[in-house]
Amino acid sequence: MTKMTDKTFFTEKKKKLTLIKSLFLVLLVVLSLYHFHKPKTLKKDIEIPKCPTVDIYRPSNYESNKELLHKIINDPVYRNISAGKMIRSIQCDTSSYDDEPEDVENNLESFERFNVFHKQLRDDFPLLHETLKLHNVNHFGLVYIWQGSDSSLQPLLLMAHQDVSPISEASLDQWIHPPFAGVYDGKFMYGRGSADCKNLLIGQMEAIEELIKIGFKPRRTIILSYGYDEELTGVRNKNPAFIEEMYGTKSMFAIMDEGGVSLQNISNSTMAIVGTGEKGYIDVSISIQKKGGHSSVPQDHTAIGIMGSLIVEIEDDKFETHFTELNPTFYQYVCLAENSVDIDAVLKHDILYSQFDDDANSNIRNFINSDRLTSYAIKTTQALDIINGGVKVNALPEFVELRLNSRIALEENITFAYEKFVKNVETIAKKYDLGLNVEYPYNKGEDVVILPPTDVGVFSVKSLFVLEPSPITPVGDKKWKVFAGTTRHIYEELAYPEIYENSEEQVIVTPGLGTGNTDTRYYWRLSDYIYRYRPGVLPSVTANSHGINEYIEFDGHLQIIAFTFEYILSVDELDD
Ligand SMILES: *[C@@H]1O[C@H](CO)[C@@H](O)[C@H](O)[C@H]1NC(C)=O
Ligand SMILES: *[C@@H]1O[C@H](CO)[C@@H](O)[C@H](O)[C@H]1NC(C)=O
Ligand SMILES: *[C@@H]1O[C@H](CO)[C@@H](O)[C@H](O)[C@H]1NC(C)=O
Ligand SMILES: *[C@@H]1O[C@H](CO)[C@@H](O)[C@H](O)[C@H]1NC(C)=O
Ligand SMILES: [Zn+2]
């Protein structure tokens, strides 16, 4: 009897194993192919999220105003007159400057430019000024009230802001057209405020003039509210308090303001993204106080060197990404998955299964995170924006300050983000043996000693400005149906019938995240229904808002007028 040697035994076993392994691999490949390419039949027991898809919506009296709406969108004479109003509004330089006094009452002359703008508005919109009642709030804030016949109905509130972001002198020579010239070339309108957001303010006023001309008398009160320091975080804006005093909390039917993305092509679908929420916001100051001295006898690490380590620590410790139903961005992708004509099958699967399947969730987070322009929507961001320190090249710095700005994801909050930064500082403070004092955002003026001060020095952390993530506007109800359905109507039937008339494709109107913070942050008490959406063609990032050569495609401006005109008519027909 020949005994099978260990060696042959193992060889045999290995062969068998290899065979099993190969079979297993084949099975895996088949399974994964099936997993990625066949799963279009969705499991019955799992509830797949739904896009709040809407039908096209028109007011019941649409037919009688159809000709006028076509004129607004297409008529060259109308366009010419409208362009003139935009040009004159851009020519009123209403820049907001960082050193603007907060006390308006005693510094009226510093705001004189708004009087010039107000006069221009009176000249260009005579009917509106005859018909609506104007309240000047905190001197330069504008609140117009168009009284409705039925005061039991909640007013509709339309917003924009009068001020524009300032021009840096250094960039002046890079403007193709001077920023306050207001140049129109037949297709594009150039100038500061053309996109952010005099187009919205002027467009709303043009729509109201047209409504007055056709003899419309609102049942539901309409309010226009225009602040004058939106670019300075709105601390002088007393309009919302004024409106709340008149009408009470949660008294508005809905609020519309700038924000969101007009139209954007995502994976070959055209989407209109209505901002139904905003991220939170925090500015943090982190400073080091350290003994100075002559730089001929330095310590191993100066205050600047230690701050350098902290910078690396913060930037390497990124916030996590999230893809959850708490964030309106989630529905943006669900809408894409459900409505896109040619979306990639794997992407579609991952979106629809993201709330049940960790791998799908991770795939979709990686997909969104891979592009800077989409990644901001699914995580708290951090940007180190200012650093100050050192005064003399031969003296050791005694004080260094870093300022950072963080935009808070909807799944997180101010406290959560702040603690991440405190943790980063604590790590570095321990490493270099410094003390650490922290002033927490909701305990202003009270320092907490996390690490006692040492001979080396001390870190101080405090917040400068905080805003929690916003409440989320409900969607899927009748208010959403009117807002989103009007948007579809304007784009598909009025503006671009040649693309949509005989096509399966639609403009996918979806909730999403506002790209920044708007004045609506002070209006949360007035309504749960806040739509941050400026009709138009280009997303605001493309339109160079805040940058050089801000511009709009003028078609977009005409769409604002048509949208506002129709939206007011439709809302007027609804009951609360
Ligand atoms: C409007 O038309 C008039 C007359 O043709 C022209 O002089 C003017 O420049 C036009 N305005 C704009 C903004 O194009
Ligand atoms: C989207 O794509 C279409 C066709 O490819 C193009 O005509 C349109 O200008 C694009 N829109 C935006 C907002 O990029
Ligand atoms: C978009 O359309 C182009 C041309 O039809 C196609 O090649 C591409 O794969 C599509 N992209 C996506 C993400 O579906
Ligand atoms: C803040 O967010 C953290 C983490 O998500 C959570 O544990 C905490 O309860 C939140 N605090 C508040 C006040 O919402
Ligand atoms: Zn703005």
From TrEMBL:
<feature type="binding site">
    <location>
        <position position="231"/>
    </location>
    <ligand>
        <name>Zn(2+) 1</name>
    </ligand>
</feature>
<comment type="similarity">
    <text>Belongs to the peptidase M20A family.</text>
</comment>
<dbReference type="GO" id="GO:0000328">
    <property type="term" value="C:fungal-type vacuole lumen"/>
</dbReference>
<dbReference type="GO" id="GO:0004181">
    <property type="term" value="F:metallocarboxypeptidase activity"/>
</dbReference>
<keyword id="KW-0862">Zinc</keyword>
<feature type="active site" description="Proton acceptor">
    <location>
        <position position="230"/>
    </location>
</feature>
<keyword id="KW-0645">Protease</keyword>
<feature type="binding site">
    <location>
        <position position="161"/>
    </location>
    <ligand>
        <name>Zn(2+) 2</name>
    </ligand>
</feature>
<dbReference type="GO" id="GO:0046872">
    <property type="term" value="F:metal ion binding"/>
</dbReference>
<dbReference type="InterPro" id="IPR002933">
    <property type="entry name" value="Peptidase_M20"/>
</dbReference>
<feature type="binding site">
    <location>
        <position position="257"/>
    </location>
    <ligand>
        <name>Zn(2+) 2</name>
    </ligand>
</feature>
<feature type="active site">
    <location>
        <position position="163"/>
    </location>
</feature>
<feature type="binding site">
    <location>
        <position position="546"/>
    </location>
    <ligand>
        <name>Zn(2+) 1</name>
    </ligand>
</feature>
<dbReference type="InterPro" id="IPR001261">
    <property type="entry name" value="ArgE/DapE_CS"/>
</dbReference>
<protein>
    <recommendedName>
        <fullName>Peptidase M20 dimerisation domain-containing protein</fullName>
    </recommendedName>
</protein>
<dbReference type="InterPro" id="IPR036264">
    <property type="entry name" value="Bact_exopeptidase_dim_dom"/>
</dbReference>
<dbReference type="InterPro" id="IPR011650">
    <property type="entry name" value="Peptidase_M20_dimer"/>
</dbReference>
<dbReference type="InterPro" id="IPR047177">
    <property type="entry name" value="Pept_M20A"/>
</dbReference>
<keyword id="KW-0479">Metal-binding</keyword>
<dbReference type="GO" id="GO:0051603">
    <property type="term" value="P:proteolysis involved in protein catabolic process"/>
</dbReference>
<feature type="binding site">
    <location>
        <position position="196"/>
    </location>
    <ligand>
        <name>Zn(2+) 2</name>
    </ligand>
</feature>
<dbReference type="Pfam" id="PF01546">
    <property type="entry name" value="Peptidase_M20"/>
</dbReference>
<feature type="binding site">
    <location>
        <position position="196"/>
    </location>
    <ligand>
        <name>Zn(2+) 1</name>
    </ligand>
</feature>
<dbReference type="Pfam" id="PF07687">
    <property type="entry name" value="M20_dimer"/>
</dbReference>
<feature type="domain" description="Peptidase M20 dimerisation">
    <location>
        <begin position="276"/>
        <end position="432"/>
    </location>
</feature>
<keyword id="KW-0378">Hydrolase</keyword>
<dbReference type="InterPro" id="IPR017141">
    <property type="entry name" value="Pept_M20_carboxypep"/>
</dbReference>
